[in-house]
Amino acid sequence: MTDNRGVTRRRALGIGGALGLMTAAGLTGAAALARRPSFTGAQLRSAVPLPPPFQVPLPIPAVLKPVGTSGGADRYEITQREASAEILPGVKTPLWTYDGTFPGPTVESRRGRPVTVSHRNELPVPTVVHLHGGRTPAASDGYPTDLLLPEGWREHSTHVGHGSAHGMHDPRAVVTELTRDYIFPLDQRPALLWYHDHRMDFTAPAIWRGLAGLHIVRDDAEDALGLPAGPRELPLVIADRAFAADGSLAYPALDPTLRVRPGVREPYLAGVLGDVILVNGAPWPMHEADAARYRLRILNASNARHYELEAVTDDGRRLDLVQIGADQGLLTAPVVHRLLPIAPAERYDVVVDFSGLPAGSLVRLVNRLGAGRTRDVMAFRVARKVADDSRIPRTLSADLPAWRRSDAVRMRDVAFRTGQTHAGRGWLIGGLPFDPARTDVTTRLGDVEVWRLIADVHHPVHLHLAGFRILSRSGRPPLAHDVGLKDTVSLRPGEAVEIITRFEGYRGRYLFHCHNAEHEDMGMMANLEIV
Ligand SMILES: [Cu+2]
Q: Which burial class, exposed, middle or buried, applies to 440 when counting CB atoms under 10 A from its CB (0-12, 13-18, 19+)?
C-alpha cells in the first residue's frame, strides 16, 4: 500500500489546504473550492494486481430469513464476526462482517410490521448498529456510545470521544455485552435503508472492513405499481476499497487494531478513497441482463467517494436514468436524468431500459468523477430479448410531505467546517467537535423547522429519524436529483443548502452528522434532542 502522491490537488482539497483557505478567506475560499474537480479526500493505491473490469459476476446479497414470528413481528439474528472472502480473484481478504458476508444479508420488511434484529458481537471490538433511514426509537437507533461489547471487553469501555485521552464520558450510554436486540417499528414509507456500524470514533474503519448491509421496506401500494421486480430489481451497493500486499483491506488507521486510538494518518484526514470500485462486494462486476427494464436500487456505501453515474452503451449513447425514488422512498412522479450524482450514504431508485438494445450489447455504469480504473463501476451485458410487462407509472406516490416555509416554527444555521478538536485537526459542526454529553439542538416533537446547512468542502449531511426535503441551494432552486424525501443531502464546497422537516416519530436523543465517515469519526457529529 502506498500513498497516491501523484494527486496534486489532494493538498488543495485535503484538510490542510481547506484550513488555510478557510481561515484566510472564510466562505470566499470555499467558493473558490467549488470550481475545482469534485472530491474530498485522498486515494489509497492497492498493492496487489487488480483484475480487469467486467469479469466477476454481480453478486446479490442473500435475503435473511426470520428465526421466528410472533404477534405480527419478525425476529432476526445476525452474528457479527470475522470472515474471509475472495473479493479479488485469487486473493483472500479478511473482513469484519454481518453473518459472514460483505455486504451483510438483506433484511426485507413490510411497512408497519415491526422487526427485531438481535445482534451478537463476536468481533474483537465493540460495535453499534444504526439502521440508516429508519424511523427508530432512540434506544434502538444506534447512538455511538450505546456499545455492544464483545465478551470479556474491559478496557476503554467508559472513555469515548475523539480525544478519548481526555476521558470524555457519556453518562447516558446504554452498554450491553455480547448480544443486543434492536427493535425497528418500520412505521415509515417503503424505502431502501441500510444498516452499518456507528461506533464512537471508529465508524469509518468498521464500515470499510465490511460492516454494512441493506434493509428494504416495502408495502402493497408500491408492489401494485408494476415496477420492474424479482430478478429485474437489483440492489447495487457501491463502495470503493483498496487492498494491501497481503490481501487485507488497506486503511490508514492510526491504530490498526481499532481498539484505542481513533483517526487516520495524514493525508487522509479529509476522507479515505480506494482505487477498486466494488458493487455488492465484487470488483467492477458484470451482470447478464434481459433486454428489459431494470429497477436499480443504488446505495453509495463509500466512506468518502462521490460518484456521478451514467449508463453508456458500446456505441457511446447515454441511457436515461429514470429516477423513481430518493433516500426515503418513491417520488411523486419520475424524473429523467442522464447523469446522477450520488454522495456517500445517499440512495437513488432508478429504472434503466435495455429493451432497445441488441443482444450482446454492453452497457457500462460509469463514474464521471473517477479517473483511470475508478471511472468504471460495473457493466450489464444484454443477453436476450424477452417480454417485459413492467411499467413506470406517471404517478408513483401521493404521500410525500409538502411542508411549506410558513409551517416552520424555527430556522437554524448549521455550519460544517474543518477546525481543531481535542485530538488535533478534525471536523466541526457549529464550531464544535462532537461531545455526547452536550445537547446541540433541542426541538419539540411535531415541530417543523428549516435548517440552512453551510459547508466548506464536500459534506454529505445525514439526519437520524427525520426525512427532509431540500428547499434551495445557495439561494437557487434545488437540483433535479434533489427531489423527494431525503435523509442525506450532499453539500458541495462552499454551498448553503436549506432543508425543511418535521420532527416526527419519537422523542429522545438522536444525531445529525456528516456521512463522510472519516469526518464523522473526527468530530463532525452533533446531538439532536427531541422533547
Ligand atoms: Cu464532512
A: middle
